[in-house]
Amino acid sequence: MDAERLSMIGVLVQQQNQNLLRLQQAVDRRRRERRRRRVVWVRQCILKRPEHGLYDKLMVELRNEDPGAFHHFMRMPPAMFNEFVQRLTPRLTKQDTNYSASLEPGLKVAITQRHLASGNTYRNMQYAWRVPHNTISVVVREVVEAIIEEYTDELLFCPTTQQGWRDLADQWYQRWNFPHTIGAIDGKHVACKTPPNSGSELYNYKGFYSVILFAMVDADYKFTYIDVSGNGSSSDTQIYNESDLYRGLDQNRIHAFPQPDPLSKGTQDVPYFIIGDDAFSLPT
């Protein structure tokens, strides 16, 4: 290859390198321009939360002027809401950062309560509460975890003595006129996003994906037993038959479960039992 051809190839390679360099510089410049145009640290509507947000305006008005409407909105009266917030505040308080102030615990509780009461989506809630939807998704999980940690030992309990079980039965008899009843059971479909590759396991007969909350409650609607392992495609009977509660009753393995004894005005021993709708079949 002669020197003239080598020189020409060198020039072409140099021009190609220069073209690639200019192209890369143009791409980088375009990316910087797009990044500058898209940077919005806090939207203006979010900054106006103290002036127009539901928590700082509507809830204050309802608390002071219409406690009944506040109860309907939050599903609890103002005094109970204040106590609720007070107990959860130590678990929900976060330090402010150099970039933004943390949300106050009362706002977090109110957003979570309203989401649970209405079932509204995070994206729809963000406009009225003036809190970004991605922040709401974090807040709801945080508050629910705080509720579980704060109230589990106090509210979710199961008797450990025969007298404790009989006390439950007495409550049922006094309030609902059901003798020898120690609980009521039912299942509730809780809508969820279907996990990848789950097929139709979570698809229920109502036409959406769900997990089933199976629970037993006492005469005051307080949980004494819960099971959230059921897929939406399962029936209440399937969930019950596969539960620890069923196995415990069937095999007489529930701790300190009371033995049959007579009703208040009877002489024949009657077993203690749980009640449910016709979805739960009676044992043969």
Can you offer a commentary on this structure?
The chain is of the alpha+beta class. It is built from twelve helices and six strands. The strands form two sheets. The protein has a four-stranded mixed β-sheet. Strands 4-5 form a two-stranded antiparallel sheet. The longest helix has 36 residues, at 3-38. The N and C termini lie far apart (99 Å).
Could you outline the blueprint of secondary structure elements for this entry?
Blueprint: H1 3-38, H2 44-47, H3 49-52, H4 54-65, H5 67-74, H6 78-92, H7 105-118, H8 122-129, H9 133-155, H10 162-176, E1 181-191, E2 210-217, E3 223-231, H11 236-241, H12 244-250, E4 261-262, E5 269-270, E6 273-275
Parallel strand pairs: 1-6
Antiparallel strand pairs: 1-2, 2-3, 4-5
Helix pairs in contact: 4-5, 6-7, 6-9, 7-9, 8-9
What's a quick, concise take on this entry?
By secondary structure, this protein is α+β, with helices and mostly antiparallel strands.
Question: Which key features would you list for this structure?
Answer:
54% helix, four-stranded mixed sheet, alpha+beta, 284 residues
Span between termini: 99 Å
Can you count the helices?
Answer: 12
- Please state the average pLDDT score: 87
Radius of gyration: 30 Å
Q: Helix and strand succession?
A: HHHHHHHHHHEEEHHEEE
Principal-axes shape call:
elongated
| Biggest sheet, spatial arrangement of strands | 3-2-1-6
Profile the largest sheet: 4 strands, mixed
How many strand elements? Answer: 6
